[in-house]
Design brief:
2 domains; Hypothetical protein af1432; mainly alpha
């Protein structure tokens, strides 16, 4: 989906702000922000009634503070990002109401924060961000994050955890059943939930191929 003509200049300005301030990694970079904005627009069109200026601001500034997944302060990252976003939004002409709305969306988008989104824009941003953890991009991001944290791709003795407890702090692949396969049930929009279910199906299909390459049979719980 192409950006709204009215928002194209603002998008470029906010994208530049994010590029200057973000501590980027391969899973949380400008491409991630672009994907979240594209998905957010699609969800907004499906749901109807979202404020696209607020959604744009939140999409491009939601990862201003991005702490590693193993950081003890991880749960505070989204509220820290919301605080950091406020002066940037004001400098680009956002009203106090728009700033507050964007901050709420940013603060509540994070899985780790455990905060409830109360606005349509917040629900859409949260869904758009979580959808980027699923499907083909989600597969790539899982292993990118796992590699950055020094985690093995999978347990070579029991890759699909048939005879052990799941542990995504040790094996990247375990993150799928621990968290990602369960994301569709937690999405806030109808369109987001449907897309999430499709993307999880793609990941399960990948797991089937992986099992075949490893000479194993994929357990029913993964299929």
């Amino acid at each position: 989906m192409l950006d709204s003509v009215d928002l194209s200049d603002l998008r470029e300005a906010l994208r530049a702000e994010a590029a200057e301030r973000m501590a980027q990694d391969s899973a949380h970079d400008l491409a991630h922000l672009d994907r979240v904005w594209t998905t957010a627009q699609a969800l907004s069109e499906a749901e109807g009634g979202a404020d696209l200026r607020v959604l744009l601001g939140a999409s491009y500034l939601h990862d201003l503070v991005n702490l590693p997944k193993d950081s003890p302060h991880r749960a505070r990252a989204s509220t820290m990002a919301a605080s950091a976003a406020a002066p940037i939004l004001r400098s680009h002409g956002f009203s106090n109401h728009e700033v507050a709305a964007a901050q709420h969306a940013i603060a509540t988008h994070s899985f780790s924060a455990g905060l409830k989104p109360k606005s349509l824009e917040a629900r859409i941003l949260r869904d758009a961000d979580r959808l980027d953890a699923l499907g083909a991009i989600g597969i790539a991001r899982t292993f990118a994050v796992g590699g950055a944290l020094g985690r093995a791709l999978y347990d070579e003795n029991d890759p699909f955890a048939e005879h052990r407890a799941l542990d995504d702090s040790a094996w990247a692949l375990d993150h799928w059943p621990v968290k990602l396969f369960r994301l569709p049930e937690d999405l806030q929009t109808v369109a987001g939930k449907l897309t999430a279910e499709e993307r999880v199906a793609e990941m399960r299909a990948f797991a089937q191929v992986l099992a075949s390459e490893l000479g194993r049979t994929l357990p029913e719980s993964w299929a």
